[in-house]
Protein backbone atom coordinates (compact mmCIF):
# COMPACT_ATOMS: atom_id res chain seq x y z
CA UNK A 1 0.00 0.00 0.00
CA UNK A 2 1.16 3.55 -0.85
CA UNK A 3 4.31 2.53 -2.72
CA UNK A 4 3.98 5.43 -5.12
CA UNK A 5 5.46 8.67 -3.93
CA UNK A 6 2.74 10.91 -5.26
CA UNK A 7 -0.84 9.75 -5.36
CA UNK A 8 -3.60 11.99 -6.59
CA UNK A 9 -7.20 11.37 -5.73
CA UNK A 10 -9.65 13.20 -7.96
CA UNK A 11 -13.39 13.41 -8.48
CA UNK A 12 -16.20 15.94 -8.39
CA UNK A 13 -17.31 17.59 -5.15
CA UNK A 14 -19.06 15.22 -2.74
CA UNK A 15 -17.87 12.08 -4.51
CA UNK A 16 -16.11 10.82 -1.38
CA UNK A 17 -12.45 11.84 -1.70
CA UNK A 18 -11.97 13.07 1.84
CA UNK A 19 -13.90 10.10 3.24
CA UNK A 20 -11.80 7.64 1.28
CA UNK A 21 -8.61 9.46 2.22
CA UNK A 22 -9.42 9.31 5.93
CA UNK A 23 -10.36 5.64 5.84
CA UNK A 24 -7.25 4.73 3.85
CA UNK A 25 -4.94 6.70 6.14
CA UNK A 26 -6.51 5.18 9.18
CA UNK A 27 -6.24 1.65 7.84
CA UNK A 28 -2.69 2.02 6.59
CA UNK A 29 -1.37 2.39 10.18
CA UNK A 30 1.38 4.58 8.75
CA UNK A 31 1.85 7.93 10.53
CA UNK A 32 0.37 10.75 8.50
CA UNK A 33 -0.37 14.43 8.48
CA UNK A 34 -3.32 16.06 6.70
CA UNK A 35 -3.39 19.62 5.43
CA UNK A 36 -6.76 20.99 4.43
CA UNK A 37 -5.82 23.44 1.69
CA UNK A 38 -9.35 24.85 1.60
CA UNK A 39 -8.34 26.84 4.64
CA UNK A 40 -5.94 28.88 2.52
CA UNK A 41 -7.27 32.09 1.07
CA UNK A 42 -6.38 33.08 -2.46
CA UNK A 43 -2.84 34.48 -2.69
CA UNK A 44 -2.02 33.13 0.74
CA UNK A 45 1.36 33.91 2.29
CA UNK A 46 4.10 31.65 3.61
CA UNK A 47 2.90 32.34 7.15
CA UNK A 48 -0.54 30.92 6.27
CA UNK A 49 0.96 27.80 4.79
CA UNK A 50 3.09 27.29 7.87
CA UNK A 51 0.07 27.74 10.14
CA UNK A 52 -1.58 24.93 8.25
CA UNK A 53 1.54 22.81 8.66
CA UNK A 54 1.69 23.61 12.37
CA UNK A 55 -1.90 22.50 12.77
CA UNK A 56 -1.33 19.32 10.80
CA UNK A 57 1.81 18.38 12.70
CA UNK A 58 0.13 19.20 16.01
CA UNK A 59 -2.73 16.81 15.23
CA UNK A 60 -0.27 13.96 14.69
CA UNK A 61 2.10 14.96 17.44
CA UNK A 62 2.02 11.61 19.24
CA UNK A 63 3.45 9.75 16.28
CA UNK A 64 5.90 12.44 15.17
CA UNK A 65 7.25 13.87 18.41
CA UNK A 66 10.52 11.92 18.19
CA UNK A 67 11.26 13.28 14.73
CA UNK A 68 10.03 16.83 15.31
CA UNK A 69 12.09 17.27 18.49
CA UNK A 70 15.29 17.11 16.49
CA UNK A 71 14.41 19.85 14.04
CA UNK A 72 15.92 23.24 14.63
CA UNK A 73 13.25 25.89 14.13
CA UNK A 74 10.49 23.66 15.45
CA UNK A 75 9.37 23.84 19.05
CA UNK A 76 6.76 21.74 20.74
CA UNK A 77 4.71 23.84 23.12
CA UNK A 78 2.38 21.52 24.96
CA UNK A 79 0.23 20.04 22.21
CA UNK A 80 1.16 22.58 19.62
CA UNK A 81 3.97 22.50 17.10
CA UNK A 82 5.47 25.88 16.32
CA UNK A 83 7.48 26.32 13.12
CA UNK A 84 9.68 29.28 12.23
CA UNK A 85 8.74 30.64 8.89
CA UNK A 86 11.25 33.49 8.90
CA UNK A 87 14.53 34.48 10.47
CA UNK A 88 17.59 32.51 11.50
CA UNK A 89 15.86 29.31 12.50
CA UNK A 90 13.61 29.28 9.42
CA UNK A 91 12.75 25.75 8.36
CA UNK A 92 12.30 25.37 4.63
CA UNK A 93 9.73 22.93 3.33
CA UNK A 94 12.49 20.80 1.81
CA UNK A 95 14.30 20.70 5.19
CA UNK A 96 11.10 19.71 6.90
CA UNK A 97 10.49 16.90 4.42
CA UNK A 98 14.08 15.66 4.80
CA UNK A 99 13.60 15.45 8.54
CA UNK A 100 10.20 13.79 8.33
CA UNK A 101 11.78 11.25 5.99
CA UNK A 102 13.45 9.67 9.00
CA UNK A 103 10.23 7.70 9.29
CA UNK A 104 7.68 6.31 6.89
CA UNK A 105 5.14 9.15 6.75
CA UNK A 106 2.23 10.06 4.51
CA UNK A 107 1.63 13.72 3.80
CA UNK A 108 -1.92 14.25 2.62
CA UNK A 109 -3.12 17.53 1.19
CA UNK A 110 -6.87 17.80 0.77
CA UNK A 111 -8.07 20.01 -2.12
CA UNK A 112 -4.47 20.58 -3.13
CA UNK A 113 -5.35 22.78 -6.12
CA UNK A 114 -5.83 25.49 -3.50
CA UNK A 115 -2.03 25.58 -3.15
CA UNK A 116 -1.96 27.44 -6.45
CA UNK A 117 -0.74 31.00 -6.10
CA UNK A 118 2.51 32.85 -5.53
CA UNK A 119 4.01 29.95 -3.53
CA UNK A 120 3.25 27.25 -6.12
CA UNK A 121 6.79 27.00 -7.34
CA UNK A 122 8.32 26.78 -3.90
CA UNK A 123 5.93 24.05 -2.81
CA UNK A 124 6.43 22.06 -5.99
CA UNK A 125 10.20 22.39 -5.68
CA UNK A 126 9.98 20.97 -2.19
CA UNK A 127 7.75 18.09 -3.32
CA UNK A 128 10.08 17.40 -6.26
CA UNK A 129 13.02 17.37 -3.86
CA UNK A 130 11.19 14.93 -1.60
CA UNK A 131 10.29 12.80 -4.62
CA UNK A 132 13.96 12.51 -5.50
CA UNK A 133 15.51 12.14 -2.05
CA UNK A 134 12.93 11.28 0.58
CA UNK A 135 11.84 7.81 -0.32
CA UNK A 136 10.03 7.31 2.98
CA UNK A 137 7.51 10.02 2.22
CA UNK A 138 4.34 9.52 0.26
CA UNK A 139 2.23 12.47 -0.82
CA UNK A 140 -1.49 12.09 -1.38
CA UNK A 141 -3.16 15.07 -3.01
CA UNK A 142 -6.88 15.28 -3.50
CA UNK A 143 -8.73 17.69 -5.76
CA UNK A 144 -12.32 18.49 -6.70
CA UNK A 145 -11.20 20.98 -9.29
CA UNK A 146 -9.41 18.40 -11.36
CA UNK A 147 -8.12 20.59 -14.18
CA UNK A 148 -6.76 23.09 -11.68
CA UNK A 149 -4.98 20.33 -9.76
CA UNK A 150 -3.35 19.06 -12.95
CA UNK A 151 -2.43 22.63 -13.85
CA UNK A 152 -0.81 23.04 -10.47
CA UNK A 153 1.21 19.82 -10.65
CA UNK A 154 2.05 20.41 -14.29
CA UNK A 155 4.08 17.22 -14.65
CA UNK A 156 4.06 17.47 -18.43
CA UNK A 157 5.71 20.87 -18.71
CA UNK A 158 9.48 20.55 -18.83
CA UNK A 159 9.96 23.85 -17.03
CA UNK A 160 7.86 22.72 -14.09
CA UNK A 161 9.57 21.50 -10.89
CA UNK A 162 7.56 18.28 -10.96
CA UNK A 163 8.24 17.61 -14.63
CA UNK A 164 8.17 13.89 -15.45
CA UNK A 165 7.59 12.83 -11.84
CA UNK A 166 5.19 9.94 -11.80
CA UNK A 167 1.83 10.55 -10.14
CA UNK A 168 -0.53 7.66 -9.61
CA UNK A 169 -4.05 8.94 -10.12
CA UNK A 170 -7.16 7.47 -8.56
CA UNK A 171 -10.30 8.87 -10.07
CA UNK A 172 -13.41 8.41 -7.98
CA UNK A 173 -16.54 7.81 -10.02
CA UNK A 174 -20.14 8.07 -8.96
CA UNK A 175 -22.15 5.08 -7.76
CA UNK A 176 -24.04 3.06 -10.35
CA UNK A 177 -27.82 3.41 -10.16
CA UNK A 178 -28.32 0.07 -8.42
CA UNK A 179 -25.67 0.86 -5.83
CA UNK A 180 -27.17 4.30 -5.17
CA UNK A 181 -30.54 2.68 -4.50
CA UNK A 182 -29.02 0.04 -2.29
CA UNK A 183 -27.07 2.73 -0.43
CA UNK A 184 -30.23 4.74 0.33
CA UNK A 185 -32.28 1.69 1.27
CA UNK A 186 -29.66 0.48 3.71
CA UNK A 187 -29.42 3.94 5.20
CA UNK A 188 -33.18 4.12 5.73
CA UNK A 189 -33.19 0.57 7.14
CA UNK A 190 -30.65 1.62 9.75
CA UNK A 191 -33.26 4.08 10.98
CA UNK A 192 -36.05 1.50 10.65
CA UNK A 193 -37.81 3.74 8.17
CA UNK A 194 -39.92 2.06 5.53
CA UNK A 195 -39.53 4.02 2.31
CA UNK A 196 -41.30 3.45 -1.02
CA UNK A 197 -39.20 2.34 -3.96
CA UNK A 198 -40.65 5.29 -5.85
CA UNK A 199 -39.11 7.70 -3.35
CA UNK A 200 -35.74 5.98 -3.56
CA UNK A 201 -35.90 6.08 -7.37
CA UNK A 202 -36.84 9.75 -7.36
CA UNK A 203 -33.93 10.65 -5.08
CA UNK A 204 -31.48 8.67 -7.20
CA UNK A 205 -32.84 10.27 -10.35
CA UNK A 206 -32.25 13.73 -8.91
CA UNK A 207 -28.88 13.21 -7.28
CA UNK A 208 -27.32 10.66 -9.59
CA UNK A 209 -24.71 8.50 -7.86
CA UNK A 210 -22.91 11.22 -5.94
CA UNK A 211 -22.65 9.83 -2.40
CA UNK A 212 -22.43 13.22 -0.71
CA UNK A 213 -25.77 14.28 -2.22
CA UNK A 214 -27.34 10.90 -1.53
CA UNK A 215 -26.30 11.08 2.11
CA UNK A 216 -27.59 14.61 2.45
CA UNK A 217 -30.87 13.78 0.70
CA UNK A 218 -31.30 10.68 2.87
CA UNK A 219 -30.77 12.73 6.00
CA UNK A 220 -33.18 15.46 4.92
CA UNK A 221 -35.77 12.82 4.10
CA UNK A 222 -35.27 11.19 7.49
CA UNK A 223 -35.98 14.57 9.07
CA UNK A 224 -39.51 14.11 7.66
CA UNK A 225 -39.08 16.22 4.60
CA UNK A 226 -40.89 15.47 1.36
CA UNK A 227 -38.83 14.59 -1.71
CA UNK A 228 -39.69 18.00 -3.14
CA UNK A 229 -38.36 19.73 -0.04
CA UNK A 230 -35.24 17.57 -0.13
CA UNK A 231 -34.59 18.69 -3.70
CA UNK A 232 -35.21 22.32 -2.87
CA UNK A 233 -32.87 22.29 0.10
CA UNK A 234 -30.09 20.67 -1.89
CA UNK A 235 -30.50 23.03 -4.79
CA UNK A 236 -30.34 25.95 -2.40
CA UNK A 237 -27.03 24.63 -1.11
CA UNK A 238 -25.69 24.33 -4.65
CA UNK A 239 -26.94 27.83 -5.48
CA UNK A 240 -24.86 29.14 -2.59
CA UNK A 241 -21.76 27.40 -3.89
CA UNK A 242 -22.30 28.74 -7.38
CA UNK A 243 -22.96 32.24 -6.03
CA UNK A 244 -19.62 32.07 -4.22
CA UNK A 245 -17.91 31.08 -7.43
CA UNK A 246 -19.51 33.92 -9.37
CA UNK A 247 -18.72 36.32 -6.54
CA UNK A 248 -15.06 35.26 -6.52
CA UNK A 249 -14.83 36.29 -10.19
CA UNK A 250 -15.84 39.78 -9.26
CA UNK A 251 -12.22 40.30 -8.23
CA UNK A 252 -11.36 40.13 -11.90
CA UNK A 253 -14.18 42.45 -12.91
CA UNK A 254 -17.89 43.00 -12.62
CA UNK A 255 -18.36 42.02 -16.27
CA UNK A 256 -16.41 38.78 -15.89
CA UNK A 257 -18.47 37.79 -12.91
CA UNK A 258 -21.68 38.48 -14.82
CA UNK A 259 -20.46 36.47 -17.79
CA UNK A 260 -19.76 33.43 -15.65
CA UNK A 261 -23.35 33.64 -14.46
CA UNK A 262 -24.67 33.94 -18.00
CA UNK A 263 -22.49 31.13 -19.35
CA UNK A 264 -23.65 28.81 -16.57
CA UNK A 265 -27.26 29.77 -17.17
CA UNK A 266 -26.93 29.19 -20.93
CA UNK A 267 -25.35 25.77 -20.46
CA UNK A 268 -28.06 24.77 -18.00
CA UNK A 269 -30.63 25.81 -20.61
CA UNK A 270 -29.08 23.50 -23.17
CA UNK A 271 -26.40 25.51 -24.98
CA UNK A 272 -24.44 22.38 -25.80
CA UNK A 273 -22.05 23.63 -28.44
CA UNK A 274 -19.65 26.50 -28.86
CA UNK A 275 -21.86 28.38 -31.31
CA UNK A 276 -24.98 27.97 -29.17
CA UNK A 277 -23.16 29.11 -26.07
CA UNK A 278 -21.68 32.14 -27.79
CA UNK A 279 -25.02 33.06 -29.26
CA UNK A 280 -26.84 32.61 -25.96
CA UNK A 281 -24.39 34.68 -23.88
CA UNK A 282 -24.26 37.42 -26.54
CA UNK A 283 -28.05 37.46 -26.59
CA UNK A 284 -28.33 37.70 -22.79
CA UNK A 285 -25.87 40.53 -22.67
CA UNK A 286 -26.68 42.35 -25.87
CA UNK A 287 -22.97 42.50 -26.66
CA UNK A 288 -20.75 40.95 -29.32
CA UNK A 289 -18.73 38.92 -26.88
CA UNK A 290 -15.09 38.23 -27.62
CA UNK A 291 -14.47 34.59 -28.51
CA UNK A 292 -11.33 34.37 -26.43
CA UNK A 293 -13.05 35.78 -23.34
CA UNK A 294 -15.85 33.24 -23.54
CA UNK A 295 -13.39 30.46 -24.34
CA UNK A 296 -11.47 31.35 -21.22
CA UNK A 297 -14.61 31.21 -19.08
CA UNK A 298 -15.56 27.84 -20.52
CA UNK A 299 -12.08 26.48 -19.91
CA UNK A 300 -12.11 27.71 -16.33
CA UNK A 301 -15.47 26.04 -15.71
CA UNK A 302 -14.01 22.82 -17.10
CA UNK A 303 -10.88 23.13 -14.97
CA UNK A 304 -13.06 23.60 -11.91
CA UNK A 305 -14.86 20.37 -12.87
CA UNK A 306 -18.22 22.09 -13.08
CA UNK A 307 -18.72 21.58 -16.80
CA UNK A 308 -17.48 18.96 -19.22
CA UNK A 309 -18.42 18.97 -22.91
CA UNK A 310 -21.09 21.63 -22.29
CA UNK A 311 -22.77 19.51 -19.61
CA UNK A 312 -22.88 19.98 -15.86
CA UNK A 313 -21.00 17.21 -14.05
CA UNK A 314 -23.36 17.53 -11.11
CA UNK A 315 -27.11 17.45 -11.81
CA UNK A 316 -27.84 19.54 -8.72
CA UNK A 317 -25.56 22.28 -10.02
CA UNK A 318 -27.47 22.21 -13.27
CA UNK A 319 -30.76 22.77 -11.46
CA UNK A 320 -29.19 25.44 -9.29
N1 LIG B 1 -18.08 5.43 0.05
C1 LIG B 1 -18.98 6.09 0.78
N2 LIG B 1 -19.92 5.45 1.48
C2 LIG B 1 -20.81 6.12 2.21
N3 LIG B 1 -20.89 7.45 2.30
C3 LIG B 1 -20.00 8.16 1.63
C4 LIG B 1 -18.99 7.53 0.83
N4 LIG B 1 -18.25 8.49 0.26
C5 LIG B 1 -18.77 9.66 0.69
N5 LIG B 1 -19.80 9.47 1.51
C6 LIG B 1 -20.63 10.53 2.12
O1 LIG B 1 -20.58 11.66 1.25
C7 LIG B 1 -20.15 12.82 1.95
C8 LIG B 1 -19.25 13.62 1.07
O2 LIG B 1 -18.06 12.92 0.89
P1 LIG B 1 -16.64 13.65 0.94
O3 LIG B 1 -15.64 12.60 1.24
O4 LIG B 1 -16.67 14.82 1.83
O5 LIG B 1 -16.54 14.12 -0.57
P2 LIG B 1 -15.39 14.99 -1.27
O6 LIG B 1 -14.24 15.07 -0.33
O7 LIG B 1 -15.08 14.23 -2.53
O8 LIG B 1 -16.02 16.32 -1.58
C9 LIG B 1 -19.48 12.30 3.21
O9 LIG B 1 -19.67 13.18 4.27
C10 LIG B 1 -20.16 10.99 3.47
O10 LIG B 1 -21.30 11.22 4.24
MG1 LIG C 1 -13.37 16.74 0.50
Automatic annotation (TrEMBL):
Q: Which UniProt keywords apply?
A: ATP-binding, Nucleotide-binding
Task: Output the Pfam families linked to this UniProt entry.
Answer: ATPase_2, WHD_MCM
Please indicate which superkingdom the organism of origin belongs to.
Archaea
Every copy of the ATPase domain together lies at: 5-214
Domain named MCM C-terminal: residues: 254-317
> What molecular function terms (GO) are annotated for this protein?
ATP binding
Task: Give a yes or no for keyword ATP-binding in this entry.
Answer: yes
Protein name as annotated: ATP-binding protein
Amino acid sequence: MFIDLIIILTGVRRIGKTSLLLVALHESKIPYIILDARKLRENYALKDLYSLLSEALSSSLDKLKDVLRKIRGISIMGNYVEISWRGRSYVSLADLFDHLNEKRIIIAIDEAQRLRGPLSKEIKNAIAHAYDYDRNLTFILTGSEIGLLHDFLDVEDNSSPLYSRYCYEIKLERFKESLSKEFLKRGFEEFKLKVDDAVVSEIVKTFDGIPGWLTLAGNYYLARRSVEQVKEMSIRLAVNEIENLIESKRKISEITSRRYREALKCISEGANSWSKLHECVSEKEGTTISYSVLDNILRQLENMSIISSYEFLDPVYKEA
